[in-house]
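Researcher: Next sequence.
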Amino acid sequence: MRTKHMLLAAFVAAGCLGEPSRGDDLGPPIDLSSFSAIGSPVGDGTASAPIHDVAYGSSTPSRRFYLTGILGASFATLTTGGGVDLDGDVYPSDGSVNQTLFTAGGAAGMAFDRENGLLRTEFEARSRDLMQGQANLYYPDGEFFDHPQVRAANGWSTMANVWRDFDIGERAGVYAGGGIGAGGYQLGAVYPPPPTASSGVTRFAWQAGGGVTYLFTERLTLDLGYRFFAIDTASSPVSAPPNGFGQFGGAMTSSFAASELLLSVRLYEPFRNWR
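Model: Next structure:
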């Protein structure tokens, strides 16, 4: 056993003292003294393709949601037409009621970037004050019959609008457009004794107009505009006692139109700070 151990030791010693290790053939050592001279790709201008910062998001995206508050004056005209009684006899009426009304409401919409301005689509809802005045009512033969007081109460409108804004300076702009939708009121006729005629009116409505804008900040715009607004003619059932002689009942036509001056404040991205 001892002889085997001695032979193994001699074999290992011969291998170590024999042919040199292959590591000696790897060539001269690498000189690392010039490594510090390699330039940084950013900061010293040696990079062939500079790196630019990319913003997380633009401050003025190409599409923005907005809310608008609206108030103004409506120079309105309520026109009443002929009344027809239950027997089919026509009791014509004529004359128009003209009155200045207060109107208020709001709109929600989306603004899209376009060349030299914006394209805005929105849904608008507004209400209008009570208007009332006297109308003339005639017998079927044309003789004057009565002058009831007619009224349009609880005026309202809901519109889908499209507006095109054009920049005329860094902050100022102009716009034009219009919309379609529905509008209505509670039509009433007041006779002595107290009113006995009342009927709800809901008809097609439309508007068109334009205005000027002023950009206070990136998100807040002031809007001063004009609109012509109209509700189609409607035929409404009415009933009223004519001078105490029997009961008049049937239908009366009416239509509503107005020139309106509106002051609006538009706020873009109203929920930005809530995110």
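Model: The first strand starts at residue 63 and ends at 85. The first helix runs from residue 2 to 16.
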